[in-house]
Write a structure and sequence with these properties.
The protein is α+β, with helices and mostly antiparallel strands and 369 residues long. The protein folds into two domains: 84 residues; 243 residues, Bira Bifunctional Protein, Domain 2 (BirA Bifunctional Protein, domain 2, 2-Layer Sandwich), CATH 3.30.930. The chain is built from twelve helices and eleven strands. The strands form three sheets. Strands 1-4-5-11-10-9-8 form a seven-stranded mixed sheet. A two-stranded antiparallel ribbon has the order 2-3. Strand 6 and strand 7 form a beta hairpin. Helix 1 packs parallel to helix 4 and helix 5 packs across helix 10. It is elongated. It binds phenylalanine. Phenylalanine binds next to strand 9, strand 10 and strand 11.
Length: 369
């Protein structure tokens, strides 16, 4: 390798001698570290080889082409020698590692971790399965919502406290991060009515919502809801009375849903609740799964747990959706998914859901479907 391959003699500089010297130094480098030091001496910012190539500018014009060509050839030669020597050191290093006593090439490598569904996704999937089996269709809506769909269309007046900045993340363009999945009620009604679709209509809307909350054990800034909406035409029965979608239908549907999701028989009770887009509005409670006789910390000694708000769709909402409230009635509910998941699995802190702690997440091993 040390044989001079580039033969060129300049009246100003003996560059073949330099070349020989460099190739010899490469060959003589003792180990990878020495080689790296040599490399930076030759090719670093003020490296000898770099300087040689650069020195072409100091020569008389007629000499430059031949010198430049020779200098570049030397540069490439030295580079190639360095590379070869480096690869040699690397191969030696690998050989050393392979013969070392504590290395077993037949040992299996680290195993890929198996992912699992998030508990909210597991419960959401079950709910979607259940509701689609009852004839509901899955609707979707945007997470960035207009003030109109999030509030006005839902009969929420301009001075309602929910609009205030401490509850709602407002965007600079006047839109907002939806505070609930209810805006999809009116979106869906408007779209289907415009398309000439006639109720009966049954939809669910699972989705993420946002509120400017102080995060604690039971509050998060991002959370998951599942909205439900059922609307049908009011019909005259044989008894001469009008029959439409009723609170009885609402209670039956909620009981069915809770029974499936909590995997037990349930009792529910309704208390009045105020939401401008339902009339009457209710808070639906389920009997506490953790105590039989009414008295534990989860149900705050009442025997009941508040699980979801619901009610009969307000006439103004039906009207906004393009339906005549004289002809149609309906019910709606808004289930907080985290709350249902917490009850189902006995989870005591809502912050676990977004904490990303594998000790928590790996307890829900259902695999993706
Ligand atoms: N959208 C309401 C909320 O987030 C819940 C709700 C939905 C209440 C449907 C009644 C009917 O608080």
């Amino acid at each position: 390798m040390s044989s001079a391959v580039v033969l060129y003699s300049s009246p100003h500089m003996d560059i073949t001698a330099k070349q020989d010297a460099w190739l010899q130094q490469v060959a003589a480098a003792e180990d990878a570290a020495a080689l790296a030091g040599l490399e930076s001496r030759l090719f670093g910012p003020k490296g000898e080889v770099v300087e040689l190539v650069r020195s072409v500018t100091s020569l008389p014009k007629e000499e430059r082409p031949a010198f430049g060509k020779a200098a570049n050839a030397i540069k490439q030669l030295v580079e190639a020698a360095l590379r070869q020597r480096r690869e040699g050191f690397e191969a030696e290093e690998l050989d050393r590692e392979l013969v070392a006593a504590d290395f077993d090439p037949t040992e299996p490598g680290p195993r890929a971790r198996r992912g699992a569904l998030h508990p909210i996704t597991i419960v959401q999937n079950e709910l979607v399965d259940l509701f689609t089996s009852m004839g509901f269709r899955w609707e979707d809506g945007p997470e960035i919502e207009s003030e109109y769909f999030n509030f006005d269309a839902l009969n929420i007046p301009g001075d309602h406290p929910a609009r205030e900045s401490q509850d709602t993340f407002w965007l600079d363009d006047g839109n907002l991060l939806r505070t609930h999945t209810s805006p999809v009620q009116v979106r869906t009604l408007q779209r289907l009515v415009k398309a000439g679709f006639e109720p009966p209509l049954k939809v669910i809307v699972p989705g993420r919502c946002f509120r400017s909350e102080t995060v604690d054990k039971t509050h998060e800034h991002s959370f998951y809801q599942m909205e439900g909406l059922v609307v049908d035409r009011v019909q005259k029965g044989a008894d001469g009375r009008s029959h439409g979608v009723s609170t009885a239908n609402l209670i039956h549907t909620m009981k069915t849903c809770l029974r499936v999701i909590l995997e037990r028989d349930v009792e529910v009770r309704l208390r009045p609740g105020f939401f401008p887009f339902v009339e009457p509005g209710f808070e639906l409670d389920v009997n506490c799964p953790f105590c039989r006789e009414g008295g534990c910390s989860v149900c705050k000694q009442t025997g009941w747990i508040e699980i979801l708000p619901c009610g009969m769709v307000h006439p103004n909402v039906l009207r906004e959706g393009g339906l005549d409230p004289e002809e149609f009635t309906g019910f709606a509910f808004g289930m907080g998914l985290q709350r249902v998941v917490m009850l189902r699995y006995g989870i005591d802190d809502i912050r676990h859901f977004m904490g990303g702690d594998l000790r928590f997440l790996s307890q829900f091993p259902e695999v993706a479907r």
